Amino acid sequence: MAGHDHPLFTLVYRAVAGAGEHTGLGEVRRRALAPASGRLLILGLGPGHDLDHLPDSVTSVVAVEPSASMRSSSRPRVQAARARGIEVEVIDAVGEALPIPDSSVDAVLLAYVMCTVGDVEASLAEVRRVLKPGGLVCVMEHVRAREGTWLRRSQRLVAPVWPRLAGGCHADRDTRAALQGAGFDVSELRDITITNLPPVAPTLVGIAR
What we know:
The protein is 33% helix and 23% strand. The two termini are 30 Å apart. The protein is built from seven helices and seven strands, in the order H-H-E-E-H-E-E-H-E-H-H-H-E-E. By secondary structure, the chain is an alpha/beta fold. It has a single domain (7-208), classed as Vaccinia Virus protein VP39 (Rossmann fold). Helix 3 links the parallel strand 2 and strand 3. The chain is globular, with a radius of gyration of 16 Å.
């Protein structure tokens, strides 16, 4: 979609995400995805690394990605997942307006996407709409650091320029509070710190119901 494509950032993010696969992020992805089953919605496919960590319980994927360069970058992993027998549909859409029927997915993955959506509340309302009753939201999101920490100070320092440098990313969104405000149970979410990636080191991992 026009306005959502940042080809230069795609190149940088692809390199960073690829390196992260070998320095701990891959394991965090695997843990975040482990509870997923059935039909999975990936909100923000990016370069597609999540597809490399799907548990056997996931039978099909619908992946939303509004960036043309990201969709192009994800193509090899999409093809590899299909070769493993997983049905993968990639859609050019945004989180605020998902072209997906009500109550049609068993699980949703939010992985490094809530920082970039234009409207957090609308996107989470759409997630609730398309998720089946009893479905899970698998979460792997960098979030706002605790007040008084050097990580929070670093987030404030870069806030004026970070979105322009990082494809619209906001480093300090309070995703836990947003999920709770959207009606999800967040008691199974845990805070971890990926220390080699400030100001996006504070990370929220787990499931919301």
